[in-house]
Amino acid sequence: MTSLAEDPHLDPDEAARQARGRMRSAQILGAAARLMERTGSQAMSMQALAEEAGVSVGLIYRYFGGKDDLLFAVIVDVLDSFATRVPEAVAAAKPDPVEQLAAAFRAYCEVINDKRHAAVLTYRESKSLSDEHRRRTKELEVSTSDPLRQLLRQGIDGGLLLDVDVDLVAYNLLLVAHGWALKHWYFEHTHGFEDYVGKQTALALGGIVAPRYRRRYAHLLAL
Amino acid sequence: MTSLAEDPHLDPDEAARQARGRMRSAQILGAAARLMERTGSQAMSMQALAEEAGVSVGLIYRYFGGKDDLLFAVIVDVLDSFATRVPEAVAAAKPDPVEQLAAAFRAYCEVINDKRHAAVLTYRESKSLSDEHRRRTKELEVSTSDPLRQLLRQGIDGGLLLDVDVDLVAYNLLLVAHGWALKHWYFEHTHGFEDYVGKQTALALGGIVAPRYRRRYAHLLAL
Amino acid sequence: MTSLAEDPHLDPDEAARQARGRMRSAQILGAAARLMERTGSQAMSMQALAEEAGVSVGLIYRYFGGKDDLLFAVIVDVLDSFATRVPEAVAAAKPDPVEQLAAAFRAYCEVINDKRHAAVLTYRESKSLSDEHRRRTKELEVSTSDPLRQLLRQGIDGGLLLDVDVDLVAYNLLLVAHGWALKHWYFEHTHGFEDYVGKQTALALGGIVAPRYRRRYAHLLAL
Amino acid sequence: MTSLAEDPHLDPDEAARQARGRMRSAQILGAAARLMERTGSQAMSMQALAEEAGVSVGLIYRYFGGKDDLLFAVIVDVLDSFATRVPEAVAAAKPDPVEQLAAAFRAYCEVINDKRHAAVLTYRESKSLSDEHRRRTKELEVSTSDPLRQLLRQGIDGGLLLDVDVDLVAYNLLLVAHGWALKHWYFEHTHGFEDYVGKQTALALGGIVAPRYRRRYAHLLAL
DNA sequence: TATGAATGAGCCTTCATTCAT
DNA sequence: AATGAATGAAGGCTCATTCAT
């Protein structure tokens, strides 16, 4: 009921309980993402989810407020992954805006590939969210795309990129990254994931890298 | 549902009846698209649809087989518009693959703008379709994107465009066209429709027009 | 549940345990009465009761057989108070049937005032009891009202009271005593408890005291 | 949907529909009162009600907003009967406050006897009502008891009755009237309805009729 | 053609009860 | 003695679909 800030020195029982709780959450969340992707969030019945997750119906309600919160939690889980892994990828890339942009885009795609089931929900199920949840989702989406916008801005300011509409290009990159999940069933047979990311990177950068720097980024622009 | 080519020799009563029938269909279809866009197809109740359309529940079942058929009909209605208006736009454009490509893309965007409510359903509600309907929807989508692929192929063969992956670029163009409907609530405040189409055309072509022809298409590439 | 007369020779540990047990019982029983009065016994969830009582759900089941037994225990607790305190009040009053009747009535009212939460349950929740529990409740209610009937009979036999229907008058007195709990929210602002008891005593006796003895009981009959 | 004030000249179809609607309402309301009395309103399941009423579950929701509204409707139905039949009885009685008081009390008892199932609900189920419904119920109860208070006031002003607490006596009369429903299972074997009403009238009036007028109302005061 | 009353299967959610710790 | 995670049956309610008028 009352839970102090998680203290690692808490008694072991409490720690074990929390660990089991997190496991349960993940177990249910994963099952929910799978089912929602398969049939849509509205068509997913809680009984079906219980079966897929291997728990009882009642237990789902101990961990999540209800169907709405569950959808929200699945979406937040993806957006959180973006918030974690994209900055990591940027930090690991060469200290160059364009290289970092490519790395960020790849990171978006990788998260989407990892959480393919959940990623499409952002696009498909936003109407099923409550007003409050929709608002918070939009906030997260915006802040999630911030790295892209910052790098684009840096590239433009440094003369590496043409003076494009930053918001629009960032939106396109996200759209294309989600495109892998949306038509995954189609592309995984014709293109592999690496192929998809490489070609999309080349297409996207091809339209915005300043001509004089095209040679420098030839490894990214090669079709 | 199945309507053979109308017989011009039908008696006048029959003609009037068919006209009223088509009007009823459109009336219901429009209301359905609006409601589905507002809340998702699953959340739309047939009783709510009846009210929105200004008819009784029973009547909907006289014109459409059921809820599934209704969703399918709404989607087919959009895809039909593509099939009609894109070729028209191509025929009306200058006889140049790149010009025609731009015209086709604009036509896609215009249809999506006109039927914004219904357009998003293609992305959002495909999982709600029956297997048979989903199969036919995919078929239509593929044939719908044929003009793009043909024009890209022509442009590449004529040396006007770089040797890009035709399927991928066509997919991107459709993705971006639908992007207008998906984030319409966001862009309509920052970019107008014309702005959106112009900039997206420039971005897309900027990445694929062969360098030596960039000047010829400067009016399309201007950011 | 079943508690034999405690053995005074029990070891001290056992005694302490029993004491804690009784405290727990009272703690849970009080919380149950409060919650039941607030929302009805059916609407009271065992988890809510656990929270209100400050114990775990499991513990409730160690002390009470289940929800049904709990309701029964709450009701029995009130009826037990009647069985204890009414005879005490009668014994403490002057040795006169009418004085004792007034004292008994006052005692009923006092118990009801003390256990207002639980008292209404007798009226409101009898339908929620199992057949067996309902039977035993009725038995207790009847024996609970015995003092009233006996005193009325004595008064009539001694010529102090008119020859009224003993059962009916006893029933009325109980009804009016419970009336304090039923409309407590209303009367506590217009009449105080003392006012209520005094006036009701006067009204009830006013209708049944033999005319020739009205002066003797003027202190009870004054409106 | 839009229903003008009921016009007797409305087309016959509409009239027939309204008639059937009222029949359905009564059919469901009666079944609800029976079941609620038998097991309590909370324990009554909507499926059980549907079966008892001989309709489908869904239909209940066409006529009543839900379980809450149903309970409220049942209670209002009783209170409405009071509002109708008590004034009628007063008007039909001799033009004398005490005679009219007795007639009013009898009318209360008769309504309660007729709608025994529903009458107890006022006492038992008030906690199951929503705040708004409880407020409106209380309003109705107060106005329902107005005739009693008025007649008592008249009797006192005319010197026919002792100067008793009007609110309290009115409350007692209602309590005793409901007492017939509350312990009906007990009294119907020992007293008949007529016996109950007669004796209660005598008891109640016996305590409040001014001594000098006791002979005039001997027919009401005879035990 | 058109209506809308009626149906009932199925869904989300709650909660009494159990049991491993 | 005490906890609370876990279960699953049951209930309120919705809504796609039918059919008499």
Written description of the protein model:
Four copies of one chain form a homotetramer. Chain A has two domains: about 60 residues, Orthogonal Bundle (Arc Repressor Mutant, subunit A); about 160 residues, Orthogonal Bundle (Tetracycline Repressor, domain 2), CATH 1.10.357. The first copy, chain A, is built from twelve helices and no strands. The radius of gyration of chain A is 20 Å and the shape is elongated. By secondary structure, chain A is mostly helical. The interface between C and D is large, with 39 and 38 residues. The structure holds a DNA duplex (21 and 21 nucleotides).
How would you summarize the topology of this molecule?
The structure is a homotetramer of 223-residue chains.
Chain A: H1 12-39, H2 46-53, H3 57-63, H4 67-92, H5 97-114, H6 116-124, H7 131-144, H8 146-157, H9 166-182, H10 184-190, H11 193-206, H12 218-221
Chain A binds a DNA duplex (21 and 21 nucleotides) through residues 13, 17, 20-21, 24, 45-47, 50, 55-59, 61-62, 66-67.
